[in-house]
Every structure is written in structure tokens, then in C-alpha cells.
TrEMBL record:
It comes from Geothrix limicola. The gene is hutI. The keyword Secreted does not apply. The keyword Transmembrane helix does not apply. Gene3D superfamilies: Metal-dependent hydrolases, Urease, subunit C, domain 1. This is Imidazolonepropionase. NCBIfam families: hutI. It comes from the Bacteria. Pathway: Amino-acid degradation. InterPro entries: Amidohydro_3 (IPR013108), HutI (IPR005920), Metal-dep_hydrolase_composite (IPR011059), Metal_Hydrolase (IPR032466). Residues 109-379 form the Amidohydrolase domain.
Length: 402
């Protein structure tokens, strides 16, 4: 017997329309018909088809229903935290200066290398719960704080265990997150190790766990050429590229992502106009991370408006990580999208649902049209816009009961 239910007593329903790039349906007094964990019908309650007349009702309690948030860029697993370094930054030392002294990512690498798989899983699960309470139903998660094969392998094993426990995740291999201390600044040799040894071995040891690979293409880290070679090796292993691109300086990361047919190019504070056009043409999703710009105290916000005008389907994400954005809160990102990237509420909402899911190649997440997974959030507000309007308010959604 099919499991059929109708969600009623909704103040309204807000969902992006997967058939149109930036269109958001706003349906007052809505109902949502669900069958076997999927959306079967949505519309005004008064128009509910007669075939649903005797299906059990779920009371929405007068809330607004929306799809769950999808976070397409996190560095979920790492050891330790960097509050000490943060305090130094508050005293005027720059992020790059701290990194050049062997702190920054390297500090987290030391703490991560000494963590066991069990410790990584335990802290990861606590973070996933915090994301979930705030309405995030699916995340992309990167390795990258191991910077050598065994530690990267433990991170991948920890993600496999979290997936096994039922968390909805996509894993991205990022052993090229920084130069490993063992290579003494020899990016060329490090890139070769990643492409020729580490990625193939990680995929061999953990078959089916990762879907994507990523490289930090940045001045002083990996060049676009080195990135290209790593991504090509990843592609041969069935891993789709996602690129840390144009984050601190303009390095041609967006252009590289377009050339490779990457799923996404992320950060992009220093993206060129040519890069934006290339991403639009190659259907690369720009994933913008305004929490990082805020937390690093930078002035250059990613040019979201120009990207939208260029035809890009912009997505937003937290970039959750211990150094540049220790933030699990989708509402903070939604607010920054509107207030600093100058996106409309509907655009920022679409960027954190439909376009985020699309960048991860999930057609059934990030919207509530027929066929979508019934990951429904219920918000106790009069109007959805209030989520950003009451700036510091810690709204939490309710979830549709199973
Ligand atoms: O996405 N760009 C590289 N990686 C992270 C920061 C990592 C860290 O500081 O620990 C980022 O911003
Ligand atoms: Fe990142």
C-alpha cells in the first residue's frame, strides 16, 4: 500500500520552480500531497484533487512550508578549532600572515592528523545536528585537513560512516586544500602526488564514497595548470570537479572551472567578467560564500548581481570550516546574500535550495514540485521575508513528521 498524506492548514507554501531559473511559487493557503516520501501535488488547498479526499491529513499548524536548505560547500570534518588565531586577527594580524607563519589551515591539519575516525565522526555528527536543526537537509562535505594519504583516508572513512548512519551527504575529495608541509613548498611535486597517488588510492580504498574532487587554486597554493592536472586525474576516477576559485586573488579559477565542465566554482570574490560569462556558458554553478567574506573582514563581496546578469544560476553556501567561516547557520547566509550580495529574498532563497541542489546534481532536492523528496520545513512566521527582516532572530523550522 502506498503511503499517502496531505499536508494542510498551511499559511502558505514557498518553493522554487525547477522548470524556471529564478521563479519562486508563493501559494497562500496551500496544501501539499505526498506519496511514499515524495511530493505528488502542490497548490491552493481549495484545488486539492478529489483523488486525495480520503488521504490522511497532517496539520501544518498555520506555518509556511518550504523545501529544506541544501548546503553545497562545507569543510565539515576537522580536528580542533582556531579561536586563538581568530583572536590574533582581531588584533590586526591578517589571515595570510598567520598562514605564512605555519598557522591557519596547517594548524587544523595538525589537529586533524591526530584525530581518530571515531573522534571525527563524533564531532561531525554534532555539527550535522546543528545544521539540521537550522533547516539544512543535505550537505556537500570536503576532506582536506589531512594533506597526506592516511589522514585523508581517515576523513573519507569518517564520511562513509556518517553516510552509513543516514546523513544525507555528498563527499568531495580535497587533498589539494593546501601545500602539505612534507613537500616544503614544492607545489609541482605535491600536485603530482595528489593526482597520481592519493586520489586513485582514496577511490580504491573507499569505493563509491566520493562524487566530487576539489583543488584550492590560489596564488601561493596550486596554479590553474596544477589544478587542471589534478582535476583531470579526478575525472578519470569518476570525480566531478568543484573548484576553490578566485577566493583571495584573481587566479583564473572560474575560467578553469568552465573549461573543465566543473559542477561548481566556489568563492569567486575576485572573479573576472570573462570568468562569469564562461561559467554561464558552460553551466558551472558559482557557489558564493558570503559568510567567509564577513568572517575574514574583507571588503570585496562576490559579484552576485553581475553573475546573475551574465546568466549564471548562483548558489549560496556556508563554507563551514574552522578558519574562514565557523558558521552552521543558513539564515546568516540568506541574510548576507540579501544584505551584502544584493540578491532579492527570492533569489537568495533559490540559491540556497534549488541552485545549491542543482550544483550537486540532485533534481529532487531544493524544491517542492512533483517528484521532489518530501524534505519539508515548516516556519512559524507570518511572511517568509521575516526570516531575514528580523536580523538576529534565531528562527528554527519544524520538520514534517515521518
Ligand atoms: O574555503 N580556501 C580554502 N579553504 C577554506 C579555509 C580553510 C581554513 O582557513 O581552514 C575556505 O575558505
Ligand atoms: Fe571552502
Amino acid at each position: 500500500m502506498a503511503d499517502r498524506r496531505v499536508l494542510t492548514n498551511l499559511r502558505g507554501l514557498l518553493t522554487p520552480d525547477p522548470a524556471r531559473t529564478w521563479a519562486v511559487d508563493r501559494i497562500p493557503d496551500a496544501a501539499l500531497a505526498l506519496q511514499d516520501g515524495r511530493v505528488a501535488w502542490l497548490g491552493p488547498a481549495a484545488d486539492l484533487p478529489a483523488t486525495w479526499a480520503d488521504a490522511p491529513r497532517v496539520d501544518g499548524g498555520g506555518a509556511w512550508a518550504t523545501p529544506g536548505f541544501v548546503d553545497p560547500h562545507t569543510h565539515l570534518l576537522f580536528g580542533g578549532n582556531r579561536s586563538g588565531e581568530f583572536n590574533r586577527r582581531l588584533h590586526g594580524v591578517s589571515y595570510q600572515q598567520i598562514a605564512s607563519e605555519g598557522g591557519g589551515i596547517r594548524e587544523t591539519v595538525r589537529a586533524t592528523r591526530s584525530a581518530t575516525v571515531e573522534e571525527l565522526v563524533a564531532s561531525g555528527e554534532a555539527r550535522l545536528k546543528a545544521f539540521r536543526e537550522r533547516g539544512v537537509v543535505h550537505l556537500e562535505c570536503k576532506t582536506g585537513y589531512g594533506l597526506e594519504l592516511e589522514a585523508e583516508s581517515r576523513l573519507t572513512a569518517a564520511y562513509a560512516e556518517l553516510k552509513q548512519r543516514g546523513w544525507s551527504l555528498d563527499v568531495t575529495l580535497l587533498p589539494a586544500h593546501d601545500l602539505a608541509p612534507e613537500f616544503n613548498g614544492d607545489a609541482e611535486a605535491n600536485a603530482r602526488a595528489v593526482a597520481e597517488d592519493w586520489l586513485p588510492e582514496l577511490v580504491r580504498r573507499h569505493p563509491g564514497v566520493a562524487r566530487f574532487c576539489d583543488v584550492f587554486v590560489e596564488t601561493g597554493v596550486y596554479s590553474a595548470d596544477q589544478g587542471r592536472r589534478i582535476f583531470e586525474a579526478g575525472k578519470r576516477l569518476g570525480l566531478l570537479p568543484r573548484v576553490h576559485a578566485d577566493e583571495l586573488t584573481r587566479t583564473g579559477g572560474a575560467e578553469l572551472a568552465a573549461e573543465l565542465g566543473a559542477a561548481s566554482a566556489d568563492h569567486l570574490m575576485f572573479c573576472s567578467e570573462a570568468g562569469m560569462k564562461a561559467m554561464a556558458e558552460a553551466d558551472v554553478t558559482p557557489v558564493l560564500l558570503p559568510g567567509t567574506t564577513l568572517f575574514l573582514g574583507m571588503r570585496d563581496w562576490a559579484p552576485a548581481r553581475r553573475m546573475i546578469e551574465a546568466g549564471c544560476r548562483v548558489a549560496l553556501a556556508t563554507d563551514f570550516n574552522p578558519g574562514s567561516c565557523p558558521c552552521v547557520d543558513p539564515l546568516t547566509i540568506l541574510r548576507l546574500g540579501c544584505l551584502q550580495l544584493r540578491m532579492t529574498f527570492e533569489e537568495a532563497f533559490t540559491a540556497m535550495t534549488l541552485h545549491a541542489a542543482r550544483s550537486l546534481r540532485h533534481g529532487d532536492l531544493g524544491h517542492l514540485h512533483p517528484g521532489a523528496k518530501a524534505d519539508v520545513l515548516l516556519w512559524g512566521v507570518n511572511e517568509m521575508l521575516e526570516l531575514i527582516y528580523w536580523v538576529g532572530e534565531p528562527y528554527r523550522p519544524r520538520f514534517l513528521p515521518a
